[in-house]
């Protein structure tokens, strides 16, 4: 499976004919869908008036395509000239105007503007309200089908970006592995280097205070040296590197798993820095933390 980014945009437009003669019922269906990063699946639809009833159906369609991301889907239904005329709901308008006049005289409110009145929902009747049930069902099915194609195009865009992110992540994992190898072979971890550091530290203590037990000092110093050993951290880094490479190669919705691994990488890098008793190891640990931060930033873009 291919990695999939959570960021993308797609637009799909299709001409629709309800099967009537002389162009009656013709419309143009346009979906625009965009997605950005998100912890879960969050979908917001903007549907034209009168189409609110299809939201559960289009929401289920999107859920079949994607499992994670913040989505905004905008539907536009452009009617043909024959179908785009509007009519004023005279009875409803009369009630609105009467209520407005009553409020104006009672509270001294300013008269309502024409555009404000026409913007009230229900004042204008649109032709789709007169469609029979069969025509309406056909139009809604066409809308859902158009959305399915828009989501397929969005999936292609997200996979293209996901592939590019996967290549970046693979390179960062290689860098983490190389830094761990450098730390493992660093001269400061050699037996002679450790012995020299212990001897120098004990010599300083003996010079600073007479009467100290040299044997006991060596035992304590050896114990501290053992605690400062970073072998376990390096072994865990190797394990996490292998897990990350496996996930990236398998693909699919692995964003959360890689995010967990990035936290593990960061934990080992922090421990390596805190245990370090050599400037060279500290430098490697800081480089490691920088790469892990970059790795985690990229992971946030994956589904």
UniProtKB/TrEMBL annotation:
Residues 3-165 form the Endoribonuclease YicC-like N-terminal domain. Signal peptide: none annotated. InterPro entries: YicC-like_C (IPR013551), YicC-like_N (IPR013527), YicC/YloC-like (IPR005229). Keywords: Endonuclease, Hydrolase, Nuclease. Pfam families: YicC-like_C (PF08340), YicC-like_N (PF03755). Its cofactor is a divalent metal cation. Residues 190-303 form the Endoribonuclease YicC-like C-terminal domain. One of its GO terms (molecular function) is hydrolase activity. Belongs to the YicC/YloC family. This is YicC family protein. It comes from Phyllobacterium phragmitis.
């Amino acid at each position: 499976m291919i990695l999939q980014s959570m960021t993308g945009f797609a637009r799909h437009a299709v001409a629709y004919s309800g099967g009537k003669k002389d162009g009656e019922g013709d419309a143009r269906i346009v979906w625009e869908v965009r997605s950005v990063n998100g912890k879960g699946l969050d979908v917001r639809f903007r549907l034209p008036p009168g189409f609110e009833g299809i939201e559960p159906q289009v929401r289920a369609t999107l859920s079949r395509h994607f499992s994670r991301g913040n989505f905004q889907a905008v539907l536009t239904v452009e009617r043909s000239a024959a179908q785009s005329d509007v009519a004023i709901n005279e009875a409803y308008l009369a009630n609105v105007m009467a209520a407005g006049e009553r409020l104006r005289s009672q509270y001294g409110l300013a008269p309502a503007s024409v555009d404000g009145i026409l913007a009230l929902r229900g004042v204008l009747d649109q032709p789709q309200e007169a469609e029979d049930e069969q025509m309406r069902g056909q139009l809604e099915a066409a809308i859902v089908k158009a959305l399915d194609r828009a989501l397929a195009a969005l999936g292609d865009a997200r996979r293209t970006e996901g592939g590019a992110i996967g290549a970046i992540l693979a390179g960062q994992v290689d860098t983490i592995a190389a830094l761990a190898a450098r730390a493992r072979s660093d001269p400061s971890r050699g037996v002679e280097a450790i012995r020299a550091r212990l001897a120098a530290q004990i010599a300083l203590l003996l010079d600073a205070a007479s009467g100290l037990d040299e044997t006991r000092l060596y035992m304590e110093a050896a114990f501290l040296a053992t605690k400062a050993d970073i072998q376990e951290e390096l072994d865990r880094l190797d394990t996490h590197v292998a897990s990350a490479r496996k996930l990236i190669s398998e693909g699919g919705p692995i964003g959360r798993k890689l995010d967990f691994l990035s936290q593990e990488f960061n934990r080992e890098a922090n421990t390596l820095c805190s245990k370090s008793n050599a400037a060279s190891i500290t430098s490697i640990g800081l480089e490691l933390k920088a790469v892990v931060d970059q790795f985690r930033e990229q992971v946030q873009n994956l589904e």
